[in-house]
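A quick aside before the break. I want you to see a complete sequence-to-structure record at least once, exactly as it would be stored in a machine-readable document. Don't worry about memorizing anything.
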Amino acid sequence: MSQDPLGLDTFPKLLLHHIRVRPERPAIREKDLGIWQTWTWHQFADEVRTLACGLAAQGFKRGDHLALIGDNRPRIYAAMCAAQCLGGIPVPMYQDAAAAEMAFPIQNAEITHAVAEDQEQVDKLLEILPQCPTLAHIYFDEPRGMRNYAQSQLMSCDQLAELGRESLRRDAAFLETEIAKGSGADTAAMFFTSGTTGVPKGVVLTHHALIDRAAAAAQMEGLTDRDVVLAYLPPAWIGQNIFSYAQPFVTGYCICCPEAAETVMSDMREIGPTYYFAPPRVLEALLTQVSIRIQDLWWGGRKSYDFFMRVANRVGGEILDGRRVAFKDRLLYMLGEIFLYGPLRNVLGMSRVRVAYTAGEAIGPDLFRFYRSIGINLKQLYGSTETSVFVCVQPNGQVKSDTVGPAVKGVELRFTPERELLIRSPGLFKEYYKNPQATAEAKDAQGWFHTGDAGYVDADGHLKIIDRVKDVGRLADGTLFAPKYIENKLKFFPYIKEAVAFGHQRDKVCAFINYDMEAVGNWAEKRNMPYSGYTDLASREEVGALVRECIEKVNADLAGEPELANSQVHRFLILHKDLDPDDEELTRTRKVRRGFIAEKYRTLVDALYGGRDAVHIEAQVKYEDGRTAMISADLKIRDAKNFAPAAARKAA
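That is the input. The structure line, written in tokens, reads:
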């Protein structure tokens, strides 16, 4: 869909277009109390109008910022568009963030108005009110639990909408006049970075940047208003926002909001998305659930699964890409489709998926191949908040496990002598809010964005990302050390949830491991192994041996890669607790903060490299309700077998 000829250069103008072209088509669905509720484009636009006029009546004006805190809900997205109708700037925030984490964005953007989903989010905002004097209006969507709240700043979204209806009755032309004032160069939204390396930065994106990139990718994939998407990741993450806001506004397709995080898989099976997006951590979790189910099968069922998965690994990707495959293998794959692949896609809720993307961080090649081998058209996407997501996408039939595809139309790539990737694109951000120094460091005078990622373009024109420039290192012997690459290979195994690799300027690679409680707990129960909790299970020799087996398989693979053969993991320990965003060990998008972890657990790192067999730790942990506690544990340090390059294939 071309935007410029129609003058559809802002999201509110696109909304007006949809109510002219497809007023009765579904715009958004929400599962509430077990029943799917549908808003047509006409109904969604009515909600936007009333909220926008209500906000205007409450003093919200052009250039103001509106905080949005909650799960994917129709009102969250309606409020986002309502702010844009008035020339305001929506600022989505992570709904699982602690109250203290919300204070900086609200202070930085001088936010005056906020829409909160429920009592939990309202409580966070009320907690930080003394630190955020500009926050004068808080609107809540879910009234449950709010009856006895009497703060003057509070108002329900229903009351706000009623104010809007009264305003519309007085001046029906007001809103369309405000919408007409908008242009593609105006700021559409601000997204705060996850703060992997420091204080979060407000990334300012224009309507043009978001619409242009959403339209380019939609055209490439042939998206239409008949597509269906599940909106289940945080709206504050640019990836989810592109798929559940920018692209629906460009194409007119319907998004579906699940009832709760726990119901996502069953909700997926019910709505049957045709267009799907998941970061590697979600795909890892889904594979873990599949692996647990397979373990529960009888002996013959497990043998059948292993047989058909060998067939899928051998030819599934080639069949998906339309390449020639031997008749015998094609026949076996057809049988596998009946008995395994089709039912498996149905269990995952992906029976109707036509296009699936993974992005956010690098995905392990084995994990990537698994999904493609069972007939899911999973492709890698590369981008960031600063680039409006779509930089590189793998075209159909040109999918590789170790690249992220060629540049999307309109994007230019180049590299510094240090192999840092630079990007020039219509989707580039305008600036970091109130941070001209950071803006100048990230975007040069020629308009090139310095990504901080190291990589190169291969012979087929596909971009390959190795790691973050700052993270790519060398062992003491000069061997290339790419920690993220090693960590992703480890996380392919269902028993390993997180891994943190160390080795820069050291003589060997060592690692911290978080095991997956669900997968390992299931494994332990089948062996009648009693345990009292995570720390107890982590100390068991049987679990140590299980993790060691996974690490040694990765070592065998690494031994087959000349540049990384010496980067095999020599020693490891299983951490006493899950790495957690609340403890600042992960970002809100669950990226490992490797430097912070290395500093926080320096005694553990020293023990790994000091040749010790065990180490005692006492550490503070923070619970979801804000309470803190001290835990102590004796962690065992274990060795893992390494392989000579020549022996790699035999060992694997």
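Two observations worth writing down. Confidence is low (pLDDT under 50) at residues 1-5, 647-652. The chain has three domains: 4-258, 280-423+443-468, 473-651. We'll return to this after the break.
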